[in-house]
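Today's session is about reading a structure prediction critically. Students often jump straight to the picture, but the first step is always the sequence itself: look for stretches that repeat, for charged clusters, for runs of hydrophobic residues. Only then move on to the predicted structure, which in these notes is written as discrete structure tokens rather than atom positions. Here is the chain we will use throughout the hour.
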Amino acid sequence: MPPAPARILRISTETLPERDRFSTFQEEFAQKILKMDFIDRSARHPRIEVAFMPLGAVAVGAGSCTPAEFIRHNHHLKDCSDGFRLDIVARGLLQLSHAGEERTCDVGWGHFLDHARPAREFYPCGLSNRNVTVRAAALKTLVAHPEDLAGHPVRPGPALGLLDGYLQSLTSLDEPPSPELAPIIGGHLLDLVAAALGPTAEAAEIIAKRGVKAARLRAVVAEIARRFSEPDFDLDDIVGTLGLSRRYIQRLLEETGQSFTERLVERRLERAFAMLTDPRCLHLAIIEIALAAGFGDVSHFNRAFRRRFGDTPSGVRAAAPVATISRKVSDLEARLKTRLVNRTSRQLTLTHASRSHVQACKRILEEVDEAERTAAGEYSAPKGHLIISAPIVFGRRHVLPIITAFLKAYRDINVRLVLADRIVNLLEDHIDLAVRIGPLSDSGFVATRVGTVRLVLCGSPAYFAGRGTPRRPAELGAHDCITVEGVVAAECWRFSVGKSSASVAIHPRLVVNTAEAAIDAAIAGLGVTRVLSYQVDDAMRAGALAVVLQDFEPTPWPVRMVYAGDRFLPIKLRAFIDFAAPRLKARLSQSEA
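Below is the predicted structure for this chain, in token form.
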């Protein structure tokens, strides 16, 4: 009997009637996934969205919600669910009560639950997570007494990172894997769960062997994806490239449900179909498309194409809609409900909306191109354009030197550095990466911390000689102050006093809108000012400014590199992050020292 097809189940409160929304969601969730209670803890419109997909002995899922509690009581245990669940927090903070343990899990950590025991999961700030549920019997073949691990956090590490990436890919699929592939994927996931929890010695050896086998399968599939369009490409080419035997490669592929020949022909047919329906390929004859797709025999191409798509190549091309530039533009304007081209009798010009749309499409196509090169195994040098944003002074002092070194190392990458003392919108402003100082809003972006900067109080030595050096924050009331709009409050400054903080009223003699102007005024002896430590490094080294009240400084501000992590991460951006992060950490450590 063939294996049952996998299916993707999606449940959302947004698709349910406003009235009794939570109870209806809970009933559907209990019927199809797991029995538990849901309690809304949001102060606004509540929302829960869940995706769930069984894959043999495991099931993968993803969820997001506004602040809420998820409680599995004793009476829910009658559903006889004997599985274990490993959740990985992608966004938010988890407070977990389970198996006699009280734990808090942060982003990137996992937590392990036993469905046969009560549990309380509270997400005070909302959540976004990915999870995998495994049958108890399957997991116990690899992990000794997994029930003893229930309620414990799972530390981030290579296995958990690989598992999270695997789950992210699977839960973003539009269609489930084939019935033949689903149990293979399930086996890989089970191995990763066991590796993250700590397998027995015997199981670790089994997992390692299966991991090597999976890696070899990925290498074979990548080689086919890279070279399928070569007419003379055959199994011997993979043997020579990877050093594996023909029999071993055939066995690897047959376990996925497709032989080498079937997989090769399928890739070639997909390429041919895409070219036949692409208006940019209308000038190519069908024989040219067959050769470009990798078919050396046109008659074989015609037969295989008809078996696969139920029509001849000529028929598929004739059925494709007639495409002209004018019609395509008009269709796009109708779909977007905006004018893209200003038309006159003399000329055509792009509108502002059209220029933004073109730039966004170029970026998307570039990312798709990089994704296809990665999938095909083409790990060549990164190339393309990057747009980096940073605060003005920080960017000039710390980011620009790193970018200069980066461009010397990566000749095929161009960078545009945007220096601005404002929070840029990464998506609307088309920013690949932003360096940000201070607390972050809950934006869903990925943030890599690279150090901290201090908020310091400083003045010129001449000013302190004439007016005295303040020893406590309360003494600032007798001093002239220079404030910067938008950085700190104009009428009072906050300081750390012991384990708490206190506000001190000040007398602003001068209010400016840039830190540079405040620093220049302080150097001139007008008064004391409060700025970030990196902004006065040079003045302090030159002896033009002195820092006071260091024991009362507030908590240092974090410095982070922020970028969009929900989409495919381009190779060029990964190269910059790997290059810049350690160097920026070193510069900040040296500066603060």
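Discussion point for the tutorial: The mean pLDDT is 82.
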